[in-house]
């Protein structure tokens, strides 16, 4: 059966070129000229893969990606971006894109990228194994990881709100689950809502639920995440993206420990522990007036900071060995040997996508290895080129410079319009405001 792919880009020339190239590779191709059209097609057609432009008017590629992952669709997703900025790459990885490609590119390169991911998926499917690995515990012996374990040990059985901070991919969700699984709530639900994955007008009903007839389309009662969590744990990921109106409503619910469904009158008690996470600087957001100070203080009774992987490189070998063993078990690949120098190569790279990028990299390396011996050469070139201090491996300083250049270019392109600039870069407006202040670009 021929694979079917969805291509979403607002540039007609790119859509036409990619359609021709994928059809040459025996794909069935559907085209969308914006994110809304892509979402409509996704409701009616089952796709094997999607190629999405990050920057599109009205509804961008990241919004489409969020919808795909929120619905649990198992399709391959590759993002196209006009900027090779760390923000674009990390944001896409955070939302579980399979890969991304920077414009301009040769269409055959994109086809090969999609085909390679398909080969990995097909090999794992033949083995009857899932393609994802979950880490059940906190791995590492660095001071930062030991501190997280110590904090969790102190608070695990206390009914207090917790705020987990850190860059995308540092393991905030893993820490939240670790806290839940080591607590006396471990046998109760762990309920997760990604506040960045839904439009603002849908998050409220997802969180609080609604009664039949509460609004057009509410044909039956629906319980919200606050209610479904019961006496377990409710994990509010990307809390910094909440609208001011929803921040106010959540604050009242947390203060009173009760809420009502939309369209309802009955008070429902909140019995779950609330754990929130963000990759934004909420203190800065409070100073900027984009996040409520009273909600921040309510959420941050206990704060846990997840460090970027580049700041605890000593944990990379243990993490890598754990991921390699896990992927061997999941895929049925019985490696007889792993080269020692592979760990030196891994430690030389800066890992802008942090632990998630490390795990995804090793999953691909194991599956695409010869099945017996894992070599450093099985890693992507962007990682092996960093060994020995190669200039292709960007330092944190040069990465910041790249980010500044990308922001300035996008601001100039859009005449200083913040909303359009944020969409171009594939980040939220709050993230853009924070970065403008961080790099003193507000002048």
Task: List the keywords.
alpha/beta, Rossmann fold, five-stranded parallel sheet, 19 helices, 16 strands, globular
Task: Please tell me about this protein's structure.
The protein is of the alpha/beta class and 443 residues long. It folds into 4 domains: 4-126, Rossmann fold, CATH 3.40.50.2300; 143-306, Rossmann fold; 310-384, Helicase, Ruva Protein, domain 3, CATH 1.10.8; 396-438, Arc Repressor Mutant, subunit A (Orthogonal Bundle). The protein has helices at 12-24, 35-44, 61-70, 86-94, 107-126, 143-155, 172-181, 200-208, 225-228, 244-256, 282-288, 293-299, 316-331, 341-348, 354-367, 381-384, 396-413, 418-425, 429-438, and strands spanning 4-8, 28-32, 49-53, 76-81, 99-102, 162-165, 190-194, 209-210, 222-223, 233-237, 258-259, 268-269, 273-278, 302-305, 337-338, 373-374. The strands form 5 sheets. It has a 5-stranded parallel beta sheet, sandwiched between helices. It has a 5-stranded parallel beta sheet with strand order 7-10-13-6-14. It has a two-stranded antiparallel ribbon with strand order 8-9. Helix 3 (61-70) links the parallel strand 3 and strand 4.
């Amino acid at each position: 059966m021929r694979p079917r792919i969805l291509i979403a880009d607002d540039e007609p020339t790119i859509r036409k070129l990619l359609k021709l190239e994928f059809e040459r590779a025996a794909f069935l191709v559907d085209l969308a000229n914006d994110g809304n059209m892509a979402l409509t097609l996704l409701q009616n057609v089952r796709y094997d893969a999607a190629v999405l432009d990050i920057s599109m008017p009205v509804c961008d590629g990241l919004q489409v990606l969020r919808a795909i992952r929120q619905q649990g669709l198992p399709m391959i997703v590759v993002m196209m971006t006009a900027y090779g900025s760390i923000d674009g790459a990390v944001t896409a990885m955070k939302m579980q894109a399979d890969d991304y490609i920077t414009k301009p590119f040769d269409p055959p390169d994109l086809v090969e990228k999609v085909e390679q991911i398909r080969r990995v998926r097909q090999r794992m499917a033949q083995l009857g194994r899932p393609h994802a690995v979950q880490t059940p515990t906190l791995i590492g012996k660095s001071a930062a990881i030991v501190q997280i374990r110590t904090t969790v040990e102190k608070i695990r059985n206390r009914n207090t709100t917790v705020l987990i901070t850190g860059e995308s991919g540092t393991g905030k969700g893993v820490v939240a689950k670790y806290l839940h699984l080591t607590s006396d709530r471990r046998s109760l639900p762990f309920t997760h809502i990604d506040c960045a994955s839904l439009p603002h007008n849908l998050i409220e009903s997802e969180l609080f639920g609604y009664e039949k007839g509460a609004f057009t389309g509410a044909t039956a009662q629906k319980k919200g995440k606050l209610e479904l969590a019961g006496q377990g744990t409710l994990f509010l990921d990307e809390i910094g993206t909440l609208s001011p109106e929803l921040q106010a409503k959540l604050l009242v619910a947390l203060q009173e420990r009760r809420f009502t469904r939309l369209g309802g009158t009955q008070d429902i008690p909140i019995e779950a522990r609330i754990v929130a996470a963000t990759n934004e600087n909420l203190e800065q957001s409070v100073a900027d007036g984009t996040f409520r100070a009273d909600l921040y203080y309510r959420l941050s009774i206990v704060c846990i900071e997840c460090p970027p992987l580049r700041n605890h490189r000593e944990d990379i070998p243990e993490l890598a060995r754990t991921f390699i063993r896990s992927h061997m078990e999941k895929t049925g690949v019985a490696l007889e040997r792993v080269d020692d120098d592979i760990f030196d190569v891994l430690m030389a790279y800066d890992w802008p996508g942090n632990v998630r990028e490390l795990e995804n990299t090793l999953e691909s390396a194991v599956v695409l290895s010869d099945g017996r011996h894992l070599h450093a050469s099985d890693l992507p070139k962007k990682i092996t080129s960093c060994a020995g201090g190669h200039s292709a491996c960007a330092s944190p300083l040069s990465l910041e410079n790249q980010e500044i250049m990308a922001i300035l270019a996008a601001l100039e392109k859009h005449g200083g319009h913040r909303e359009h600039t944020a969409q171009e870069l594939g980040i939220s407006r709050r993230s853009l405001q924070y970065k403008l202040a961080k790099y003193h670009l507000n002048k």
